[in-house]
């Protein structure tokens, strides 16, 4: 076990790098000095060096907490390849092997000892650690501690005992994704007065792309791989084990070297497929989200999601496995409204507390917003993670070709009104098909039986086809303006409908193809281009939005959407009357934020006028 005099010496002599990446040196020095640290750094940003180098400068053995045994083995191999001593205490070892590792630790010959959180909180392990010198504790994938998180692991919460049993040993918690509330929970559970380091979440080499509609998925995938990524490595995430097997079999039948990975496969086959993926070239891994945590493969050129992930954090974590070498890569999401309803049904029928379910639904809302947005996708992703960025990245489908958005607010109001009137007239709720039949003026036996042809909403929606109404209904369910009771055959009830019915909420639907002229008859809205001399105003509004969102603990887009922000910057309203005409700012938002927005605009205009004199 060799100790180094400085971080720079360890960097050059062990890892062969001449310079640190941004923020690495500052993080490393804090841990060397004995400070606790929370590190948020994107996948591929160099998180491991932030604890490996302090371990080589401080006296003792570094204890690394990692969630997966397979992941630990990969990291140990990489460390040993650099001439360092590392081992893992795990159930995969024999009793004799674990005893030998314990002996190495107690004798001080190990640089790094890897353990799972379950083993670390075992009293036997704690007792062993107290008999030797620990240089630091590193908690990798620290987002697993977050109660509402996409990878929540209850045993991670027990790691708080490290503060009590080893108060003088520094702790460093690392993750690629954590919003403000997650950062707070990680800090409170694991750390003492930590220094928090947040590097940019931006992965500029990843091109983001979204496709609505789940039809012909296999054909789309084949074309995507053979035309855009022939012979390249990629990951395809599916929503079910059955879909994994189906897609993998199909691709193999077309000559693509595809491997399946999910919890239903034999453990030895999963490990074999994972090893082949990591060591091979041009392999496509088709998997559930059980695959990927900690996979250190730099040349993954694409990550595809078939079906909507349950949160922005999960999506960012999974797409971050692409392009770790910094070369151009692609993240493609294929989704449909059915995905949203399935996720909602899963959340609502789960065993979580009402608070947990509400938090999960809000995270799903943000993911739907990403899929639906007509603005820059990178900007949306980063805003959800609390980071401001350019509103035009030039590296996503929306920046490549800005979409047209049709205003369907009036149609949405008709649909919700019909749901309410049917319920009031009959004292019971009805499903989507019946509501659509009423809107389209159909004389079905159910319509006649309840006398719904007498309702004011009967026949007011003849201008739209049944499928167009169904598509809009799915949008309203996804936005939780309507609630579908899955335990009662999907009957519809009003949800968060008040703002829509009062004209305070706008429903925009992407115009997906020119073959749908009916949708184009609505008001079509294109992204507003802010003039160059008013872009500082847009920046000021974004800064205010970020601070307000952080103070309230909500996503920035819920304060004011990008469309509304750009419109304010473009027309620079200086009165409540003028501000009330901005799309997306209804009476409630006007009352809540109007004074602050107008103050920002007036301040900017006053300064601008002064510079023009």
Whole-number radius of gyration?
27 Å
Instruction: Give start-end ranges of low-pLDDT stretches.
Output: 513-527
Helicity level, as a percent range?
Answer: 40-55%
CATH C-level of the largest domain: Alpha Beta
Strand content: 5-15%
Shape: globular
How many independent structural domains?
Answer: 4
Name of the CATH superfamily of the largest domain: P-loop containing nucleotide triphosphate hydrolases
Distance, first to last CA: 69 Å
Helical run tally? 28
Structure notes:
With 613 residues, this protein is an alpha/beta fold. It folds into four domains: 7-198, P-loop containing nucleotide triphosphate hydrolases (Rossmann fold); 206-400, 3-Layer(aba) Sandwich (Rossmann fold), CATH 3.40.50.300; 406-525, Winged helix-like DNA-binding domain superfamily/Winged helix DNA-binding domain (Arc Repressor Mutant, subunit A, Orthogonal Bundle); 532-612, DNA polymerase, domain 1. The protein is 46% helix and 13% strand. The protein is built from 28 helices and 18 strands. The strands form four sheets. The protein has a seven-stranded parallel sheet, with helices on both faces. A six-stranded parallel sheet has the order 8-13-12-9-11-10, with helices on both faces. A three-stranded antiparallel sheet has the order 17-14-18, with no helix packed on it. The longest helix has 26 residues, at 587-612. It is globular. It starts with 6 loop residues before the first helix and ends with a helix. The model is unreliable at 513-527 (pLDDT under 50).
């Amino acid at each position: 076990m060799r100790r180094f005099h400085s971080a720079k010496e360890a960097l050059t002599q062990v890892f062969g790098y001449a310079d640190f990446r941004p923020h690495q040196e500052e993080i490393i020095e804090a841990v060397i000095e004995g400070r606790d640290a929370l590190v948020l750094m994107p996948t591929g940003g160099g998180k491991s060096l932030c604890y490996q180098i302090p371990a080589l400068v401080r006296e003792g053995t570094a204890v690394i907490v990692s969630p997966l045994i397979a992941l630990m083995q990969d990291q140990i191999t990489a460390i040993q390849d650099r001439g360092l001593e590392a081992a893992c205490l795990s159930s995969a070892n024999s009793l004799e092997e674990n005893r030998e590792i314990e002996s190495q630790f107690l004798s001080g010959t190990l640089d790094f000892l890897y353990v799972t959180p379950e083993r670390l909180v075992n009293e036997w392990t704690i007792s062993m650690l107290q008999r030797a010198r620990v240089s630091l504790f590193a908690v990798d994938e620290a987002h697993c501690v977050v109660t509402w998180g996409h990878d929540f692991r209850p045993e991670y919460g027990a790691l708080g005992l490290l503060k009590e049993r080893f108060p003088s040993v520094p702790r460093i918690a690392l993750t690629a994704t954590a919003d403000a509330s997650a950062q707070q929970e990680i800090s409170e559970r694991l750390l003492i007065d930590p220094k928090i380091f947040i590097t940019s979440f931006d992965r500029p080499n990843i091109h983001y792309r979204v496709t609505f509609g789940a039809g012909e998925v296999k054909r789309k995938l084949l074309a995507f791989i053979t035309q855009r990524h022939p012979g390249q490595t990629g990951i395809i995430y599916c929503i079910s084990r059955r879909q994994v097997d189906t897609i993998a079999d199909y691709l193999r039948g077309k000559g693509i070297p595809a491997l399946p990975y999910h919890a239903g496969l034999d453990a030895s086959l999963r490990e074999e497929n994972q090893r082949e993926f990591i060591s091979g070239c041009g392999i496509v891994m088709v998997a559930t989200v059980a695959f990927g945590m900690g996979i250190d493969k730099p040349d993954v050129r694409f990550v595809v999601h078939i079906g909507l992930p349950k949160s922005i954090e999960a999506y960012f974590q999974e797409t971050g496995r692409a392009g770790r070498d910094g070369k151009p890569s692609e993240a493609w999401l294929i989704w449909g409204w059915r995905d949203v309803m399935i996720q909602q049904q899963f959340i609502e029928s789960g065993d979580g507390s009402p608070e947990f379910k509400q938090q999960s639904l809000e995270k799903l809302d943000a993911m739907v917003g990403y899929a639906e947005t007509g603005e820059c996708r990178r900007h949306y992703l980063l805003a959800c993670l609390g980071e401001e960025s350019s509103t035009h990245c030039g590296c996503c489908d929306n920046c490549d070709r800005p979409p047209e958005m049709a205003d369907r607010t009036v149609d949405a109001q008709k649909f919700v009104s019909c749901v309410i009137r049917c319920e009031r007239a009959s004292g019971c709720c009805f499903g989507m098909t019946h509501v659509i039949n009423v809107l389209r003026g159909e004389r079905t036996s159910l319509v006649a039986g309840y006398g719904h042809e007498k309702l004011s909403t009967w026949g007011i929606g003849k201008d739209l086809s049944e499928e167009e109404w169904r598509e809009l209904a799915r949008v309203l369910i996804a936005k939780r303006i309507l609630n579908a009771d899955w335990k009662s055959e999907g009957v519809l009830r009003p949800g968060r409908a008040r703002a829509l019915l009062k004209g305070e909420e706008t429903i925009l639907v992407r115009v997906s193809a020119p073959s749908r002229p009916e949708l184009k008859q609505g008001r079509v809205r294109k992204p507003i281009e802010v003039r160059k001399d008013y872009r500082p105003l847009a920046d000021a509004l974004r800064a205010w939005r970020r601070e307000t969102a952080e103070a309230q603990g909500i996503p920035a887009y819920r304060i004011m959407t990008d469309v509304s922000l750009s419109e304010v910057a473009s027309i620079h309203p200086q009165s409540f009357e003028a501000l009330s005409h901005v799309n997306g700012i209804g009476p409630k938002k006007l009352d809540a934020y109007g004074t602050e927005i107008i103050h920002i605009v007036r301040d900017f205009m006053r300064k601008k006028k002064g510079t023009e004199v």
